[in-house]
Amino acid sequence: MQSVDLLTIGAGGGAYPAAFRLAKAGRSVVMVDPKGVMSGNCLYEGCIPSKAMRETAVMLQSQRRFATRGLSGSMRIDYAQMIAHKDAIQARRYQQHAAELAAVPNIRLLQGVARFLSPHEVAVTTATGEQCFHCAQIILASGSEVFAPPIPGAHLCLSSHDLYKPDPTLKKLPGHLIVIGGGYIGLETATFLAAFGAQVTLLQRGEQVLDGMDPALVAQLTPLLDPRVRILTGVDVTAVEASRRGRRVRYRRKGKNEQLEGDIVLMAVGRRPVIPAGTVEIGIAVGKKGVEVGAGLQTAHPHIYACGDVNGRVPLFHAAVRQSLVAAHNILGGNQPLDYADFSHVPTTIFTLPAAAYVGITPDQAAARGMALVTGRYDFAEDARAQILERTEGGIRLFFAPDGLRLLGGWVLGIDAGHLIGQIGMAAASGLTAYDLARFADQHPTSAEGIGKAARSLF
Ligand SMILES: Cc1cc2nc3c(=O)[nH]c(=O)nc-3n(C[C@H](O)[C@H](O)[C@H](O)COP(=O)(O)OP(=O)(O)OC[C@H]3O[C@@H](n4cnc5c(N)ncnc54)[C@H](O)[C@@H]3O)c2cc1C
Ligand SMILES: NC(=O)c1ccc[n+]([C@@H]2O[C@H](COP(=O)([O-])OP(=O)(O)OC[C@H]3O[C@@H](n4cnc5c(N)ncnc54)[C@H](O)[C@@H]3O)[C@@H](O)[C@H]2O)c1
């Protein structure tokens, strides 16, 4: 039995920021992850590889838009080269993380699978046998995995893992991709592959894609998506089968049995938390969304924290990182909840083409709570940068409390959405008002000018 101050189960965004902070504070730290590398699923098969593909799609779209505006010619995708570029980015970041790890003496990454033996004891199964640790503190950050629904033939589908992992299973662009699930992964991937030239049919169970996002924002986003993405809602998929072309999907829609054939099917109906063996047995409560935590991210055992996707609160990388740091601060504070994660101001972007982003309270949530909002508006149709890029769709909306005009939330649809929403989120989390935003003169000609202009639309 080896003794450590902190052991993290997982080495992703929910784990390594705390691991480094505590190691720098002189604690002995072991991170355990079967991947044997840092950064979890975000770098392995999530944020980074998917956005690497997206940027290629953005460049392709931009060139097409400018084919008669000075960038003549016709570009086409070389899928294999694009994958090689994606793989190279992943490899480069793994190297960078290895160097970061090597620079801190009292932290070690152990390749293996961890399980709880008791509230202070963890066993790790490695390729060379089992190692046991007595841990003063534990951060449970085992993340999430692809959810496979009990649909006959589901095993014939690919998942985001197969598209985005290093040396992915999917090596060439399909002619017709069928996507089951209209959430973040389904819609993002549909728009990237459509930009590369694939036909895509997306099958969504409910009446709205991106359920959970404000319906008014979704209604503005979907008509702007590539017409090569055909969205069918209200679909109940009954089976996936092998066919001569590749795959056949059978489903019921509007009371009728229908079927579709495609080259491949992407199953993207959600992810579920990964709960290490022994978690429940040692008395940690696991609810429908994941491990249950209090405001300081502590489980039923005050020295065991659960951060990131495993607690299901906001399954995004930057939310996991912030939670990890909250746990580190509370550990340094002697397991007193001195720091809290702010789950109400996490900027969220769907990186479709175009992207849509939101933060804080949006009209749909306000209506559900019986709250009134005052809306500041700015349309990209009048924006200098949007006009230069010939991408004038969408705009910025800011939502303020009627008394005092405090910023409660906002959304952005169109250019630079993922960047602008961070600035709006920072303003909302800092308690700024429309007056504060209106008097700050942001840079010309950037789309960030639009934030001040949206605030000034009220005066
Ligand atoms: C395709 C895709 C695209 C995404 N795009 C974005 C995006 O653009 N922006 C964004 O913010 N988020 C995005 N996400 C979500 C983001 O990847 C996650 O929110 C983030 O990775 C969560 O970090 P985590 O540390 O909680 O978990 P993970 O990254 O899942 O890391 C958990 C780690 O724990 C390890 N583990 C599991 N069980 C054990 C065990 N028993 N013992 C030891 N180790 C274990 C796993 O191997 C894994 O490496 C995307 C996800 C996917 C799948
Ligand atoms: N840009 C980003 O930040 C980003 C990108 C990708 C993934 N992610 C994270 O990964 C998580 C998982 O993404 P996801 O897209 O797999 O899940 P999701 O929960 O976002 O969406 C799943 C969708 O599938 C639908 N669905 C469920 N069962 C179905 C069925 N049987 N048939 C048809 N549709 C069905 C749901 O109604 C939902 O719309 C996201 O919640 C998000 O946290 C984030």
From TrEMBL:
Top-tier EC class: oxidoreductase
This protein's UniProt keywords: Oxidoreductase
EC number: 1.8.1.4
Protein name: Dihydrolipoyl dehydrogenase
Native source species: Acidithiobacillus ferrianus
